[in-house]
Amino acid sequence: ERREYRQLAFLAADGRTAAHTGDRCIPDCGHLVAENVSVQGNMLASSDVWPAAAEGFAAATGTLADRLLAALEAAEAAGGDFRGRQASALVVVSGDPGDPPWARLYELRVEDHPEPLAELRRICSLQGTRRRRAAFGPETVTAEEVELARAAGLGEEEVVLTAALAESRRGDLDGVARALAPLANADRRWREAFERYEELGLIGRGVVPRL
User: Fold this and answer.
1) Alpha-carbon span 135 to 127, nearest angstrom
2) Alpha-carbon distances of 53 from 122, 139, 172, 202, rounded to whole Å
3) What is the dihedral of CA 179, 182, 184, 188, to 10 degrees?
4) pLDDT tens per residue across span 109-122
5) What is the Cα–Cα distance from 51 to 148, expressed in whole angstroms?
6) For residue 28, is the peptide bond before it cis, meaning its omega torsion is within 30 degrees of 0?
7) CA distance linking residue 24 with residue 8, whole number of Å
8) Beta strands in the chain (DSSP E)
9) CA angle 122, 125, 127 (to 5 degrees)
């Protein structure tokens, strides 16, 4: 219904793509499809915008989230939406066929901001740094993770928790206690929180008595 006003794109799991831009969509509008990628837009500053997004995605490296952000930034640099800037969003689902299709790795939105893409990249960096914690293991280098957490803009309390989680995954309960002691000494409520963390298996049992 009303297909001439609609824009729609599909990207199949095997990389096939299909797209439709109705001839009554608001110009500049259009789409570009290739194997494993589909770009579309309307109400854009020029017909350069969606090709710029595709080129930005192709040239970028890093995670899928990083490449999608690069595509958005390239599109914005080419003129973006002719109405200006207000909002941005990023959704990334797991690529593991064993995960449910609704398992979101990233689901981020900036609803109203003078620099929505910069803000989207900032909160994406924060979430990516937090997600790293799930992969901590015996080989994790605590100092490196602390540096990454600070560089991403995490608050000092979260930096401390990052250090504690890294030490916990390495099996160093004394190291966990050293990391958490400043928080526990500053506010007794942190000690109570750490007791719960022990119960949940987040920091290893036996840390609280060491504080």
Assistant:
1) 14
2) 20, 38, 46, 41
3) -170
4) 999 999 999 999 99
5) 33
6) yes
7) 13
8) 7-11, 17-21, 30-34, 37-41, 88-93, 104-110
9) 110
